[in-house]
Design goal:
Mean pLDDT: 86
Helix content: 55-70%
Distance between the termini: 52 Å
Number of helices: 9
Shape: globular
Strand content: 5-15%
Order of helices and strands: EEEHHHHHHEEHHH
Largest sheet: 3 strands, mixed
Number of domains: 1
Strand order of the largest sheet: 1-4-5
């Protein structure tokens, strides 16, 4: 039996200024986004993306992740709590970000980015999506450090006691999600996208992959009280929100089968400085 290390969520504190591990994990995710994106541009001469567009994608994506993720958490999971404590909505350093809300926020952001650069939004998402899973992995490490989103009771040898919850061993579900939705999904999507694919195929594969892996992880994660509990048919909120993702992914893959592998949409701005 393991015991959660109860790491101080504050990584650095200087006077009244505190930097939380959770925030640092988001910064790590954004840094990985840029590094992986630059690698893809450099090694794919047919990419419609430029380094300038990658910088735009990071800016738009950051806004989508933070605003959409927080709004999704408030609306999907703990609406009653935030209705009683509205000022806590802005305390994102304490944790509490919804992937599904963040995904919708990023989706809107990528639509705006595609319009700005006169590309189809699926071309944009096909490029951006392989850069995302490692950021998700970093976020789950932030959840683990914060000691939030713990798992259900278990008797497996690696069960972990979260002392501030109770004295019973639980699944370290944050680490499960780190491994599944972060590392495994990154390997699958990065490998799949390394070869030319029809427009929408990478996006569809990600939607299906994340939806299935998240739904599986939900069987080990303790549903929170209130709005995020187990809902109709014994399905959790996370699983209900994953169903539309899986269906959208299937639709995107079916649509992509009618497309030819995209070599192109090369913009005149492709004459850039490397």
């Amino acid at each position: 039996m393991l015991v959660h290390p109860q790491i101080d969520p504050v990584a650095i504190s200087v006077g009244p200024l505190s930097i939380h591990w959770y925030g640092l994990m988001y910064l790590l995710g954004f840094a990985l986004f840029i590094l992986l994106g630059r690698y893809r541009i450099k090694h794919n001469p047919h990419s419609a993306f430029t380094y300038e567009m990658l910088d735009d994608a990071l800016f738009y994506g950051m806004l989508g992740v933070i605003l959409g993720g927080r709004l999704g958490h408030v609306l999907f999971y703990q609406f009653g709590y935030y209705l009683d404590h509205p000022l806590h909505i802005f305390a994102i350093w304490e944790g509490g970000m919804s992937f599904h809300g963040g995904f919708l926020g990023v989706f809107v952001a990528m639509v705006l980015l595609a319009r700005k650069h006169k590309l189809s939004w699926l071309t944009v998402t096909d490029f951006v999506i392989p850069l995302i899973p490692l950021g998700l992995a970093a976020g789950r490490i932030g959840n683990f450090i914060n000691g939030e989103l713990w798992g259900r009771h278990t008797d497996v040898p690696w069960g972990m006691v979260f002392p501030y919850v109770d004295e019973f061993p639980r699944h370290p579900s944050q680490l499960y999600q780190f491994a599944l939705e972060g590392v495994l999904l990154f390997i699958v999507i990065w490998t799949y996208s390394s070869k030319p694919r029809a427009t929408g195929a990478v996006t569809g594969m990600f939607l299906i992959g994340y939806g299935v892996l998240r739904s599986f992880a939900e069987f080990f994660r303790e549903p929170e009280d209130g709005f995020m509990g187990i809902l109709t048919l014994g399905v959790t909120m996370g699983q209900w929100l994953s169903i539309p993702m899986i269906l959208a992914g299937i639709a995107a893959l079916m649509w992509s089968r009618r497309q030819s592998p995209h070599v192109a949409q090369i913009n005149q701005r492709k004459n850039k400085k490397r």
